[in-house]
What does this fold into?
Amino acid sequence: MEKVTVAVETPYDVLIDHDLLKHAAAHLEDLIQGKKVLIVTDENVASFGYLGNLQEAIVGITSGVDTYVLPAGEAQKSAENYVALQGHLATLNYSRSDVIIALGGGVIGDLVGFTAATYLRGIDYIQIPTTLLSAIDSSVGGKTAIDLPQGKNLVGAFYQPRRVLCDLDTFQTLGETIFEDGCAELIKYGMILDGDLLGQLMDRESPLNALSGDLGAIVKRCVEIKRDVVLEDEHDLGLRQMLNFGHTIGHAVEQASHYKVSHGRGVATGMILTQIMAEKEGLTELFLTERFNKLLNQYHLLNQLNLVKDYDFEDLTAAMTNDKKRRGGEITEIFPDSFGKCRLETMPFDQYAGYLAAIIADLKADKLPIVLDGDEVA
Ligand SMILES: NC(=O)c1ccc[n+]([C@@H]2O[C@H](COP(=O)([O-])OP(=O)(O)OC[C@H]3O[C@@H](n4cnc5c(N)ncnc54)[C@H](O)[C@@H]3O)[C@@H](O)[C@H]2O)c1
Ligand SMILES: [Zn+2]
It folds into this structure.
């Protein structure tokens, strides 16, 4: 088993292995023994049997397990669900010494995390991520949030989980596109902080998948990167902003598509457009786009770019106006310097909007230096 300890104020372990759900009682005993436990999940995750397996594994050591199953999808990260979940906990008389478990992807993790952060001013929660994206990113680091109609993640808190159990076997039921969404964040880690990891992804014989033998090691590497960043900057004031590479444009694309474009693919779109922007504006001297483009295509992460062509530019910048990364009249963007190295650059929002307008105009006129998946010459 791989273990990464995140040594924040109350340190916690991230456990990564096969077959963890079945042995969840042993891995969670110190946190849930004799307590009431509410498992929150979504319908897909429940339908694959993970909810039943977890419930069965832990019920014997708790004083009772309750379950709460939501439909799947980003729309569930809503204020309505947040209030309903709080009400449910209150109705069941959950106290501050009881525990909530988030079993699912980033949507469930973010909603449960924010609920746990605020119910009775804070109740313990455990993350059991079941998507690659949530395992390597959202379940670690304590950023929790819900969306508002005005934008993504606008209401939230920093609130760390007490443990993270990442059962690699759960990834085997992920659809290919959902697995690939996780690969977008994986590529992000490589681009911003780990050239070796990126090289590992670029040079492999076949693309990473749920059955790859090195998946556990790769998940561990990403969790370590996230841990290091979080330890240095838990509250997102400096280094942690690096993790937002591709996210300024990515969130705007997600929102402008009314969440038809997934988070991972929004981020992939944002990363490649930010990369091209940096080259175009002379902000990076290296010509990385071609290899980056090829890597993203291996995971089919740019197929939605044709959709983005049809979005209104105003819709994209309106979404950004609400982006919390915009402070005062300025925006901090993350630009690649080379593979494995990015830097933060703060500039007036109007200047950034000008850069973006130029990229979007090129995109609409089919003038971007990008090859899309289907266009590739054999
Ligand atoms: N808090 C953070 O630091 C952070 C970081 C990155 C992303 N996020 C958030 O995470 C969310 C995206 O996470 P996500 O991509 O996991 O989305 P998600 O939770 O919507 O999961 C994607 C889909 O996979 C299904 N699914 C989950 N586990 C499965 C399994 N094992 N087998 C089959 N299907 C399964 C879900 O039902 C859903 O349909 C976004 O809301 C994003 O804002 C948060
Ligand atoms: Zn992300």
Q: What stands out?
A: The pocket of nicotinamide-adenine-dinucleotide (ligand 1) is lined by residues 42, 44-45, 48, 72-74, 77, 104-108, 110, 130-131, 133-134, 137-138, 141, 143, 152-153, 170, 173-174, 178, 181, 263-264 (CB under 6 Å).
